[in-house]
Amino acid sequence: MLAYAIRRFGQSVFVLVLMSFLVFIGVYAIGNPIELLVNPQADEVERARAAAALGLDRPFLEQYWVFLKGAASGDLGRSFVYNEPALTLILDKLPATIELAFVAMVMAIGLGIPLGLVAGLKPDSFVGRAIMAGSILGFSLPTFWVGLVLIMVFSVQLGWLPSNGRGETMMVAGLPVSFLTADGLAHLAMPAVNLALFKLSLLIRLTRAGTREAVLQDYVKFARAKGLSQGRVIGVHVLKNILIPIVTVIGLELGSVIAFAIVTESIFAWPGSGKLLIDSINQLDRPVIVAYLLVIVTLFIVINFVVDVLYSLLDPRVRLGGAAASH
Amino acid sequence: MSGGPLLQVDGLRMHFFTKAGVVKAVDDVSFTVGRGEILGLVGESGSGKSMTGYSILGLIDPPGRIVEGRIVFDGTDLTRLDPAAWRSIRGNRIAMIFQDPMMTLNPVLRIDTQIVEAVQAHAGVSRESALARAREALVRVGIASPDERLHAYPHQFSGGMRQRVAIAIALVNGPDLIIADEPTTALDVTIQGQILFEMQKVCRESGTALLWITHDLSVIAGLADKVCVMYAGRFVESGPVADILDNPLHPYSRGLIDSVPARNERGRPLRQIPGMTPSLLSLGPGCPFRERCASATPRCAESPEVTEPSPGRRLRCFHPAR
Predict the structure, then answer these.
(1) Nearest to A16 by CA among A297, A313, A323
(2) Which candidate from B87, B98, B169 shows the least CB-CB separation from A218?
(3) I want to staple A58 with a disulfide (CB 3.0 to 4.6 A). Which of A62, B10, B98, B234 is the partner?
(4) Do B150 and B27 fall into the same domain?
(5) Structural domain of residue B145, as residue ranges?
(6) Which residues contact B227 (CB under 8 A, 6 or more apart)?
(7) Domain annotation covers residue A22
(8) Which distant-in-sequence residues (6+ apart) come within 8 Å of B199 by Cβ?
């Protein structure tokens, strides 16, 4: 297990370095940030001074080398635009995004797995068909459109829910959170639903497919032949077997929902990191873009590690470290 | 306890109502199993023998449904019970073992969990005493170092060992009847023999009745007291095992017995039954075997009644072999 963790750590560092290099090339190719940062009326001398101050006058590889040296000591550079450490900027905004993502995922999991089980156990019933029809809607309606409709209905016409911002926050462990105050919850409701809808549909379909397959297995029939209650057969024998693909997808989706909640954050003016990323890309604020993506990649790596550990807990046949059990 | 047989299946019909039509998977099947008796239920794949077993346990799922007949177990007609009452009998007084031991144990649950839950589903006992019973059941089916084995997962067992665990689970609540659905078919021949011996021993010791479902007559020969032969969902003939094997009356039973390789006919090609089993969807009235039967006459287009050619034997045929 320890050797496995160390090997994973080594792979992760490699992925991070590779990723940062690719992003560096990408942003370098898009254009020169000096054009956007310096007043268009400025003369050549002033432009050169600004470029030198930001280190943009040096060759590409040297710029990257400077970044790498800084990164090794935990310094991901300063934002060209805000002149603040890029990491600080991101960590200021990230908690709001993580809160939104977690609430959305909890909604998707809490509804998606039970609904998927129902649809999988009674595929031909009215309820089962209704759930599947709903999930097709959730799948195919574009997120931005659903967001706008939610605002139209609940903010503009009914006036029940606020359409933008985080609302009143409470400090928990030094971080502001919205979900503990009534006002914060009201602000959280629509963006979270908006974000959850697609994941919910995905989990419904995944759970349903797994359930339909599992209920045909002999071990389910054997469990029933033992006289177990329906609840135990479904809740233990079926659920534990179908949980592996579900956990995988939940892990990946959690990462992507944190990384790319941009559309929802823009629509509901949620002060999260998605908005920061979009702004930074528009202004070619390379340190922020690189730092943001590094944070996100780290997040994915951590989530995937947790998912792998969960596998070994869920399925005794999976052993971490590649020492396969004999069959 | 009532004085009658332990299990009496009487005119059982179990049909699947599919979109393509009604599949008569079990169509008028009757037999009895006495206490401690071993009945072999014989037939080819698709003859409805497994479905008969599932019907007795109430494990038929829609679109399948028991449409007619009684399943009287120890004086109670199971078909009249509500699902909860039927569940309280399942795994408790009637247990079942399945064909493929690689598939019947849940791969992600430990053996102790799978046995203990079977105990606790029927008896309000603590986990400790349930574990003690689990351990005892494993010992009874010949599993060495049961304490270690209880903590293992199914993939750490061989096929034969898994089947022993499944049998232990079936035995753990001391059932009156075990329905065994070809439990040795998927095993090596040597393991097959061990399991057969073990099952027989355990059942004889505890007075547990067995309903042994199989297509393999050679298994039945050394194991069962009585045999009931099924074909295309219907009852064909039944009687004491020696009578049926030595002197089959129905042409189908005769065909089955002739297609078993026998030691004294070395070098001769095996006889086989011509044709194939009919589709249960399109099956009309009359004897379902008549298309493949050498003795068939136009009269076979009608359904023959069940007759009793000799005491203890029942037959459904117009032209019994002599």
Answers:
(1) A297
(2) B98
(3) A62
(4) no
(5) 108-172
(6) B39, B40, B41, B42, B220, B238, B239, B240, B241, B244, B245
(7) no
(8) B167, B178, B180, B183, B210
Q: Name the token pair of B61.
A: 């799922």
Band (pLDDT 50/70/90 cuts) for residue A11 is: confident
Both tokens assigned to A77:
């550079």
Q: What is the mean pLDDT of residues A11-22?
A: 86
Place of tokens 């600080």: A88
Q: B154 and B49 share a domain? A: no
Structure tokens, B295: 């003795």
Map tokens 């239920």 to a residue: B41
Of B59, B110, B121, the CB nearest to A221: B59
Render A28-90 in DSSP notation, one character per residue.
HHH--HHHHHS-TT--HHHHHHHHHHHTTTS-HHHHHHHHHHHHHTT---B-TTT-SBHHHHH
∠ CA A199-A204-A208, nearest 5°, is 150
How many Å apart are CA B162 and CA B100, to the nearest integer? 9
Q: Is A26 among the domain residues? A: no
B3: left (phi over 0), alpha (psi -120 to 50) or beta: alpha
Interface pTM, i.e. ipTM: 0.86
Question: Chain B contact for A16, CB < 8 A?
Answer: no
Q: Where are the alpha helices (DSSP H) in B63-106?
A: 83-89, 101-104
Strand B38-42 vs strand B21-33: parallel, antiparallel, or unpaired? Answer: unpaired
Q: Is the pLDDT of residue A127 over 70?
A: yes
Q: Do A316 and B107 touch (CB under 8 A)?
A: yes
How many domains does the structure of chain B reveal? Answer: 2
Structure token digits, residue B259: 């297609």
Mean pLDDT per 10-residue section of chain B, whose length is 322 residues: 78 88 86 89 86 90 87 88 89 89 88 90 88 89 86 88 89 90 82 84 86 86 88 88 86 82 67 77 78 80 82 84 68
Question: How far are the Cα atoms of A102, A268, B64, B67 from residue B19, in angstroms, in the given order?
Answer: 44, 49, 12, 17
In a domain, A78, yes or no: no
CB nearest A218 (choices: B104, B110, B156) = B104
